[in-house]
Design a protein that fits this description.
By secondary structure, the chain is an alpha/beta fold. The protein has 3 domains: about 280 residues, Rossmann fold (3-Layer(aba) Sandwich); about 110 residues, Up-down Bundle (Four Helix Bundle (Hemerythrin (Met), subunit A)), CATH 1.20.120; about 50 residues, no CATH class. Helices cover about 45% and strands about 15% of the residues. The strands form 5 sheets. It has a 5-stranded parallel beta sheet, with helices on both faces. Strands 6-7-8-9 form a 4-stranded antiparallel beta sheet. It has a two-stranded antiparallel ribbon with strand order 1-2. Helix 12 packs antiparallel against helix 13 and helix 13 runs antiparallel to helix 14. The longest helix has 19 residues. The protein is elongated and about 85 Å long. It binds adenosine monophosphate and zinc ion.
């Protein structure tokens, strides 16, 4: 698999530390509000990445955090805590807010067929982990205490800005929107690991620590949760491009200083979803949620379809006109697939050829648009039997996750259990070379309108008469 690596600033062959096993970390949502479809574009890209890795033969271990403390309104440690602001506005406790919007996030993921990562951990459940890391950073001289807070000293590193490729523009982002200068910092670029004396004293969630009662900074969460769940060597770390600086830059700084070696080899970043003039974000007041799409009469999966038709590293401009066109194309696609009859022989070599093309598109820096083209080529190919087409579509959908196979095709026979038992019995007969008996079962089922098809994965059945 070839992927663009933000760290090396080029497309590279993806080689995990352990052959065939991928350790993947994803920055999770800050659960102070509904996720907007921009956020969800990034989660769709990461979902496709995970599924594509699995599809091409890797075993993927994936972890993600839920940010329920410490993410301030400015990424550069100034402003107020987004969770606290939301709790005040909604007259709820921070934990109630976190619970409500975490549930809402999973609901949106489900509607978009985004798989929940194997490990999901809340920032507030890992305080002891951050304390352990911060203590070591202090001991080793990478961190210092000032004005009651613990800061990371970025001048202790030779190449703090390596992820951004030293692009001055991006590097000063934090300073630009970071309103006022923090006089506690030794260097303007230093960032907070632990707050005990925040500018606002009404922070609801605080914990005891060797550095005083307080709460963790946002960046340390991901370092802690990743190392705790995936170990010292990470293969791939994901997020949206706005996370490159300062968040991921700071994650690298603190993780590698703590571990004493390189931490993560590949950095995967999804480009933004923009509205006409600006990035979609809550602060711009231009957000659209999955519920908005549903209310406007669109299928959430039409939005996934729209995302898959563009490359994850290109800015996608959202308009309702383009969603409308994608929604229509998606429905047409579903309709077309539903007309395919599960009939004919299974064409092994054609299946493998198309599957190879599909995988090659994914291996080409996750070119989902080309992968979709392969799907359309399958639909157009008149030399393919219906059975082969459906098997290919079913297979591709493990990555695309567009619910392409209609209910008609997936419908189980009312006597499914019994049929499966007969299929097993037939396989036994065949093993014992009792072909007459095996054919007897085939005939018996055929008389009931059930046709058996032997595929590479085993025998499946299709119904010739469907009610
Ligand atoms: P947050 O909940 O703010 O921590 O963001 C969750 C994820 O969404 C992060 O990976 C961000 O980089 C990403 N993100 C934020 N805004 C956008 C956008 N307009 N388009 C795509 N991804 C975004
Ligand atoms: Zn993160």
């Amino acid at each position: 698999m070839k992927l663009y690596n933000t760290l090396s600033h080029k497309i590279e062959e993806f080689i995990p530390n352990t052959p065939e096993v991928v350790k993947m970390y994803t920055c999770g949502p800050t659960v102070y509000h509904f996720a907007h479809i921009g956020n969800l574009r990034t989660y769709i890209a990461e979902d496709v990445l995970e599924k594509a890795l699995k599809y091409t033969g890797y075993y993927v271990q994936r972890a993600m955090n839920i940010t329920d403390v410490g993410h301030l309104t400015s990424d550069s440690d100034s402003g107020t805590d987004k969770m606290v602001d939301s709790a005040i506005a909604e007259r709820k406790s921070v934990l109630e807010i976190a619970e409500f919007y975490t549930e809402a996030f999973w609901k949106d993921c489900k509607r978009l067929n985004i798989r929940k990562p194997d490990v999901v951990s809340k920032a507030t459940d890992n305080i002891d982990v951050y304390i352990k890391i911060i203590e070591k950073l202090l001991k080793d001289g990478f961190a210092y205490q000032s004005n009651g807070n613990i800061y990371f000293d970025i001048t202790k590193l030779d190449d703090y800005y390596k992820l951004t490729n030293h692009k001055a523009d991006e590097m000063v982002t934090g300073v630009r929107d970071g309103v006022e200068e923090d006089t506690g910092k030794r260097n303007q670029g230093d960032f907070v690991l632990w707050f005990t004396k925040s500018k606002f004293q009404d922070q609801e969630l605080k914990w005891d620590s060797p550095f005083g009662v307080g709460y963790p900074g946002w960046h340390i969460e991901c370092t802690g949760i990743s190392i705790e769940n995936l170990g010292e060597y990470l293969d791939i770390h994901c997020g949206g491009v706005d996370n490159i600086f300062p968040h991921h830059t700071n994650e690298i700084a603190q993780s590698e200083s703590y571990l004493g070696h390189k931490w993560c080899n590949y950095w995967f970043h999804g480009e933004h979803l923009n509205t006409k003039n600006a990035k979609m974000s809550k602060s711009q007041g231009n957000i659209i949620t999955v519920s908005t799409l549903i209310d406007e009469g669109y299928k959430p999966l039409a939005y996934r379809y729209m995302c898959l038709n563009s490359h994850y590293r290109k800015i996608l401009e959202f308009t309702f006109e383009s969603l409308k066109a994608n929604n229509a194309a998606y429905l047409k696609l579903l309709n077309r697939i539903s007309m395919i009859k599960s009939e004919g022989d299974f064409q092994d070599s054609a299946f493998n050829d198309y599957n190879e093309k599909f995988m090659n598109a994914l291996k080409d820096d996750l070119n989902t648009a080309n992968a979709m083209t392969v799907l359309f080529d399958v639909l157009k190919d008149e030399s393919l039997t219906g059975l082969t087409k459906l098997d290919l579509i079913r297979s591709f959908d493990k990555v695309l996750s567009l619910d392409l196979i209609s209910e008609y095709h997936e419908k189980e026979h009312p006597q499914h259990e019994e049929i499966m038992a007969l299929i097993e019995k037939r396989a036994e007969f065949k093993k014992q070379h009792k072909f007459t008996e095996a054919d007897g079962i085939r005939g018996e089922l055929a008389a009931r309108g059930i046709e058996l098809v032997d595929t590479r994965e085993g025998t499946i059945y299709k119904m010739t008469e469907v009610d």
